[in-house]
Design goal:
alpha/beta; Alkaline Phosphatase, subunit A; Arylsulfatase, C-terminal domain; 2 domains; ten-stranded mixed sheet; four-stranded mixed sheet; 12 helices
């Protein structure tokens, strides 16, 4: 009996693990495109650029036609995505770019718990491969924000291949063309490098003080970045097939600089406009990368135990990328629909009925809420307000209610509020259009007819509701104008 005692101790110590295995945690994969417009996927109506792999997520799951993000540009949108809270609740409102990424106050506050933090505490292995843009200094590194593994960069953008851009066609903004011309395009003799003045500015110095990191150490990466991030993600899935994992894969495609790999440029040789052709090459490359991730999930036999989300971080900047937001108005940086409503897809074989088109409004905050609910995460909702909802009951038919009664946005002087089909907004540009505007999205998805003067009572009602939720938010803790 004395000899058996150590073995009995080991058995009972291991017993909780055996029981917990009866209810396996689902793998969670979050795929994020950068600056991808609402109208650019095949499943969203684009017939010019095939995206069969991304479209398959909608085919095998659900496409949200009213899927939103919390901000119309990268960093603030990601802050909401990673925390499940309107980022204005903790003063994260602006978009650090360039040298501002090195400001010690410009990053996701360390007081905020990330989705990775929550899932690690629930028994997940976590990995991130791609663009972070939530702080460029040491305390904000993803390794310190809940991720077991990180391979990627910290700033807003990165060249897909380093100088001299071998293996790509590259399209860059310039204020003045080589030779002193101030307007037009300059294209090299081999057609592989183009400069354009149509934006009136020069391409940002994306790579300055912005290396590719593995964990906390800079590394040299020569493979096209979309392919490199996919390589790392597929490897992560394979190595963690025997445990629940959270894979966050925020690509920097199709964000500028526009660089299309040669093989994909040949595929779209029929597109005459070089700018559009490079964009098409980047999007097709992204689609094939998503296909590799999906294939790896199938290879390890995990399709029925893996929830997959695909989303863009904001609307597309059309003049910069050609990215279409049709039929929506405007794009990146705007609180019109084109800046906030994005491609939003989800798949979970056997749990989410295939081929759904879900028309009620959802928002990126719901990804945090859904994932933490599935993981039974110990989130303290008494200490902090979480703004997302678990989407699973709405997608499985358990609930026929609307996930959200209203949605809210604030980006400095730009702000918006949606309640049902009505949307209130201010979108001032260069001290113009400071008045409140009112639209009915059911009748006017393109926000072409301002109904503010015709419906003063509805305007007043929504303004009161906006003021109530806005009063819960705090002033920005960091601004590029400081």
């Amino acid at each position: 009996m004395i000899r058996l005692f150590p073995f009995l101790c080991l058995f009972f110590a291991a017993a909780p693990l055996a029981f917990s295995a009866e209810k396996p945690l689902p793998n969670i994969i979050l795929l994020v495109a950068d600056d991808l417009g609402y109208g650019e996927l095949g499943c969203q109506g684009n017939e010019e650029i095939p995206t069969p792999h991304i479209d398959s997520i909608a085919k095998n799951g659900v496409r949200f036609t009213n899927g939103y993000v919390t901000a119309a540009y990268c960093s603030a949108s990601r802050a909401g995505l990673m925390t499940g809270r309107y980022q204005t609740r903790f003063g994260y409102e602006f978009n650090p770019t360039g040298a501002h990424n090195e400001d010690p106050d410009a990053g996701l506050p360390t007081s905020e718990k990330t989705l990775a933090d929550a899932l690690v505490d629930s028994g997940y292995v976590t990995g991130m491969f791609g663009k972070w843009h939530l702080g460029g200094t040491a305390k904000y590194n993803p390794i310190r924000r809940g991720f077991d593994e990180f391979f990627g960069f910290l700033h807003e953008g990165h060249y897909f291949v380093p100088l001299p851009y071998h293996g790509t066609s590259t399209w860059l903004r310039r204020k003045v063309l080589p030779g002193g011309n101030v307007e037009g395009r300059w294209i090299s003799e081999d057609g592989k490098l183009a400069f354009t003045t149509h934006m009136g500015n020069t391409e940002p110095d994306y790579d300055a003080d912005n290396p590719i990191y593995r964990a906390g150490q800079p590394v040299v990466e020569t493979e096209y970045l979309t392919d490199a991030f996919t390589r790392e993600a597929v490897d992560f899935i394979g190595r963690n097939a025997d445990k629940p994992f959270f894979l966050y894969l925020p690509y920097n495609a199709v964000h500028s600089p526009l660089q299309g790999a040669d093989a994909y440029m040949k595929k779209f040789a029929h597109i005459e406009d070089l700018q559009r052709r490079i964009f098409a090459a980047m999007l097709a490359n992204l689609d094939d990368s998503v296909g590799e991730v999906l294939a790896k999930v199938r290879e390890i036999g995990a399709e029925e135990n893996t929830l997959i989300f695909f989303i863009s971080d904001n609307g597309g900047p059309t003049r910069e990328l050609t990215s279409s937001n049709l039929p929506l108005r405007d794009g990146k940086g705007s609180v019109y629909e084109g800046g906030l409503r994005v491609p939003f897809l989800a798949q979970w074989k056997g749990r989410i009925p295939a081929g759904q088109i879900y028309e009620n409004s959802v928002i990126s905050l719901d990804i945090f809420a859904t994932a933490t609910a599935l993981a039974d995460s110990p989130i303290d909702r008494k200490k902090k307000i979480y703004d997302g909802v678990n989407l699973m009951p709405f997608l499985t038919g358990e609930s026929d209610a609307m996930p959200h009664e209203d949605l809210y946005w604030r980006l400095g002087p730009k702000t918006a509020y949606r309640a049902g089909d009505w949307k209130l907004l201010k979108n001032p540009a260069r001290n113009a259009n400071k008045e409140w505007q009112l639209y009915n999205l059911a009748d006017d998805i393109s926000e072409s007819k301002n109904l503010a003067k015709e419906n003063p009572e509805k305007l007043s009602e929504l303004l009161t509701a906006w003021e109530k939720i806005n009063s819960q938010m705090i002033d920005p803790v960091w601004s590029p104008r400081r």
